[in-house]
Specification:
Elements: H1 20-28, H2 31-39, E1 45-46, H3 47-53, H4 59-71, E2 75-80, E3 86-91, H5 93-127
Antiparallel strand pairs: 1-3, 2-3
Protein name: Helix-turn-helix transcriptional regulator
Organism: Paenibacillus sophorae
GO molecular function: DNA binding
Length: about 130
């Protein structure tokens, strides 16, 4: 049986420009994105409420994250004219469809992250401690 590794690769078969995984990572790879999406999973929420729910997020980072999510069609922003204006955010259908895969990743993390930490500790001990 011929090993799949013995074939000479002439051209790359994995591409950042066409790979579905890299495209989705472009959307959700910011560490704040998942947290902001989770903050909105129960429905309409105001900016201040999102900020209070997410420990450590700055106003600037929250604003940037919300704008990017809105640009990508995952979040809807509604401004109600008043003094001061009321700004509410909610997930679009597209944003809601992202919750399922994110929950799967969250479950994987709960089940496996301790193994990742053990692997890191073993690696660090083997390669960094003398």
């Amino acid at each position: 049986m011929k090993s799949p590794y013995s074939a000479k690769i002439v051209q790359p078969d994995i591409s950042l420009s066409i790979c579905g995984y890299s495209k989705v990572l472009e959307i959700v790879s910011n560490k704040w994105t998942a947290l902001v999406v989770y903050a909105m999973e129960d429905g309409v929420i105001r900016y201040g409420e999102i900020r209070r729910r997410i420990e450590g997020i700055s106003k600037k980072m929250l604003t940037q994250t919300l704008r990017q999510l809105e640009r990508n069609g995952l979040v809807k922003r509604v401004i109600t004219p008043s003094v001061p204006p009321i700004v509410e955010y909610s997930l679009t259908r597209l944003g809601e469809s992202l919750l399922g895969p994110m929950r799967v990743l969250n479950q994987w993390t709960k089940e496996n992250y301790s193994l990742v930490e053990q692997a890191r500790a073993s690696y660090d001990q083997a390669y960094y401690e003398e």
